[in-house]
Amino acid sequence: MSKTKSLIPLKTLFVSYHASNTILISFLPLYLQSRGLSGTQIGWVLAVESLAAILAQPFWGFLSDKFKTIKRILFICLIGLLIFGFTFFQMSSLHTILIFGAVFYFFAAPIGGLNDSFAQRRATQLGISFGSIRMWGSVGFALSSLLVGEVLARFGIGYMVWVYLAFGTIALLTLIPLKDVKADTKPVKFNDIGKIIKSKPFLLFLGVILFITITHRMNDYYMALYISELGGSENLVGLAWFAGVISEAAVFALAAFWFKKFHSLIFIIIAAIIYTVRWFLYASAMDPMMIIGLQFLHGLTFGVFYTAAFDYVTRLIPSFLQSTGHLVFFSVYFGLSGIIGSLAGGSLVDVFGGSSMYTLMGILSAIGTVLLITYHIAYYRRDLTAPGSE
């Protein structure tokens, strides 16, 4: 079987899962707002999502490494996503939304990280770039954001649940013919996690990128509300995400050409600088079309930053703990950052408005950029996995 044909199930899984994830990232705040929740209350719901992610991702990653399978863990998580996703969207009071949201996200949150870990291992086996597989997630995200935005603008935000469950079902069905990846045969014990926790470069790196990833998560959660604040509708939210994720897909698709030119940390720093500029430009926006026009920067920020950061942490993690390490990285990138970003962003939007939130995001990104440069100077020469460095 050719490389292209062997990757069709995995690429389809990326398209369908990220198409469903688009709905949560792009439209969940608007859905919760339609249920009568304030910006601060929406922040609490999103913080529960992130807290569940912090707990769930290392848990499912460890099980994946211990039992030497990603496919079976993904299957369990997707079943949980469908069952508890349906339940979560039926809730109306804040306390039931929080409770069932936590259970739902315990299953839903690890899927993206497990998919990426799967893709990283398969790409290594086939000798191709991780980005050439990961780009299909961006394609699914882009197409879904455009389609779902139009559907919700026409029929109402209440239809969001059915579109979400439809994409989730497709992801589950796509997983069935997918061939599992071969994992490292070394046995994994619970105390092996200490090898990750004791890695000073790994922990410091996660701490430094928090300044950037918090701002990324704030934008994920509150760009829709900012566009609404500027006078935009659901279809403009979908268009904004479509514009951003198309640029992200292009960055992933071309990763084989640009990625190995310099050390991963160089690309991370460049993306951090662009993040800083991006947020200050968003803060100055006067109408929603300006946000849509600036969304091409999403690829140059998240696309570059995530690809380079994922590669860097992969080289810091022992091979037999790849899934665990990747999901620890995910729990910080999307979990811890999400808690801080959702709570801080919700309060800022309520009290000061979206422009002030984006100004603070620009300041945080600038601080993170300086810290990344310092980290690079301190650890570049101590990177023992030099292949791929300049």
From TrEMBL:
Domain Major facilitator superfamily (MFS) profile residues, every copy: 1-186, 200-390
Its membrane topology: Multi-pass membrane protein
Location relative to the cell: Cell inner membrane
Membrane-crossing segments per the record: 12-32, 44-61, 73-91, 97-114, 135-153, 159-178, 199-218, 238-258, 265-283, 289-313, 325-345, 357-378
Chief place of localization: membrane
Gene3D superfamilies attached to this UniProt entry: MFS general substrate transporter like domains
Keywords: Cell inner membrane, Cell membrane, Membrane, Transmembrane, Transmembrane helix, Transport
Any Pfam family: MFS_1_like
InterPro entries found in the cross-reference section: HcaT-like, MFS_assoc_dom, MFS_dom, MFS_trans_sf
Name of the protein in question: Transporter YwbF
Source species: Oceanobacillus kimchii
